[in-house]
TrEMBL record:
Residues 137-346 form the Glutamate/phenylalanine/leucine/valine/L-tryptophan dehydrogenase C-terminal domain. This is Glu/Leu/Phe/Val dehydrogenase. It comes from Goekera deserti. NAD(+) binds at residues 173-178. Keywords: NAD, Nucleotide-binding, Oxidoreductase. GO terms for biological process: amino acid metabolic process. Gene3D superfamilies: Leucine Dehydrogenase, chain A, domain 1, NAD(P)-binding Rossmann-like Domain. InterPro entries: Aminoacid_DH-like_N_sf (IPR046346), Glu/Leu/Phe/Val/Trp_DH (IPR006095), Glu/Leu/Phe/Val/Trp_DH_C (IPR006096), Glu/Leu/Phe/Val/Trp_DH_dimer (IPR006097), Glu/Leu/Phe/Val_DH_AS (IPR033524), Glu/Phe/Leu/Val/Trp_DH_bac/arc (IPR016211), NAD(P)-bd_dom_sf (IPR036291). CDD domains: NAD_bind_Leu_Phe_Val_DH. Belongs to the Glu/Leu/Phe/Val dehydrogenases family. One of its GO terms (molecular function) is nucleotide binding. The active site is at 73 (proton donor/acceptor).
Length: 351
């Protein structure tokens, strides 16, 4: 395979229609935690490709967050609006259980806390469950909180002060994470301009914050004068065209896989744009889910998510010292922890 993954599992249950892939990138630091995505992939190969990329990102995210967790990802092939059934989710749960705790599932695109409640009826290894079932509930709250901490760290690194007061932040996508982020930014004294493909999402933000400006679409947003660009919608937001016109000095957002290709980080670097790697700053959600494993306590999880500020500052400082992209520095630091701490598993303990 050549991807460096420990295990890739193909799951099929004809009666329920389940077709899924579970990719485990690494268990060097602990069980591989990562969400389950339910998406109408065009082909099985597309599903595998996505699972491999997402599980690797989860391994690095969990490493940089200081968690004793590896990285994994599950993807279910299908349209969640039409194909999701109790039978299918429970069949998926049995496949998760068959891995014996090597993979811990949580929510992702196309799955909800309620879905994980169903999956959990067949496995001990489903997390990110609803509050009424003892879970951590909606993880977007701490995802946005973590992004805000990362943005404060980037502001400290670039401008010498950990605040967005007096700065303009452009937020692309104001769904769950983006809207919570806008709340934080407004409270901090930033000027905010937003856009979203869903007019209702924009309306809900404007009802809470009438002073927020609105761009008609992302193409217009990235050309609007601003200091910080926050991609909070789909992946691949930072393509060559966007980077070429972006006026921002900092990019820091909640979306996963923001870089359209491997060379995008270098393009940002050459333009003098400070990039806070997505899997570094959006780790608040996984911190929230991990806390559920110990009996969820929101205050404790939020306190842990504040460490994203220090982690981001450490990555940005390391990148500056080597004159390299923060994306390269983040990968290096994540890999170092996986190698150094994971090595301890070779020290045998008495039984």
């Amino acid at each position: 395979m050549g991807s460096g993954h420990e295990q890739v599992v193909f799951c099929s249950d004809r009666a329920s229609g389940l077709r899924a892939v579970i990719a485990i990138h690494s268990t060097a630091l602990g069980p591989a935690l990562g969400g389950t995505r339910f998406f109408p992939y065009a082909s099985e190969q597309d599903a595998v490709t996505d699972a491999l990329a997402l599980s690797r990102a989860m391994a690095y995210k969990n490493s940089l967050a200081g968690l004793d967790l590896g990285g994994g990802k599950g993807v279910i092939i299908g349209d969640p609006r039409t194909d999701k059934t109790e039978q299918l989710l429970r069949a998926y749960g049995r496949f998760v259980e068959s891995l014996g705790g090597r993979y811990l599932s949580a929510c992702d695109v196309g799955t909800t806390n309620a879905d994980l409640d169903v999956v959990a009826r067949e496995t001990r290894f489903a997390h990110g469950r609803s509050l009424v079932n003892g879970g951590c509930g909606d993880s977007s709250v701490l995802t946005a909180f973590g992004v805000f901490q990362g943005m404060r760290a980037a502001a400290q690194h670039r401008w010498g002060s950990p605040t967005l007061r007096g700065r303009t932040v452009a937020v692309a996508g104001v769904g769950k994470v983006g809207s919570w982020l806008v709340d934080r930014l407004v409270d901090d004294g930033a000027s905010v301009v937003v856009t979203d493909v869903d007019p209702g999402a924009v309306t809900r933000v404007r009802e809470r914050h009438p002073g927020v400006a609105v761009a008609p679409d992302t193409a217009a947003l990235v050309r609007t004068p601003h200091d910080v660009y926050a991609p909070c919608a789909l992946g691949g937001a930072l393509d060559d065209e966007t980077v070429a016109v972006l006026p921002a000095e900092i990019v820091c957002g909640g979306a996963n896989n923001q870089l359209a290709h491997a060379g995008t980080a270098e393009l940002l670097q050459r333009r003098g744009v400070l990039y806070a790697p997505d899997y570094l700053v959006n780790a608040g959600g996984v911190i929230q889910v991990e806390d559920e494993r110990h009996g969820f306590d929101f205050a404790r999880a939020q306190a842990r998510a504040t460490t994203i500020f220090d982690a981001t500052l450490r990555v940005l400082t390391a990148a500056a010292e080597r004159d390299e992209s923060p994306a390269v520095a983040a990968d290096r630091l994540a890999e170092d922890r996986i190698a150094q701490v994971g090595r301890l598993a070779t020290i045998r303990l008495p039984r």
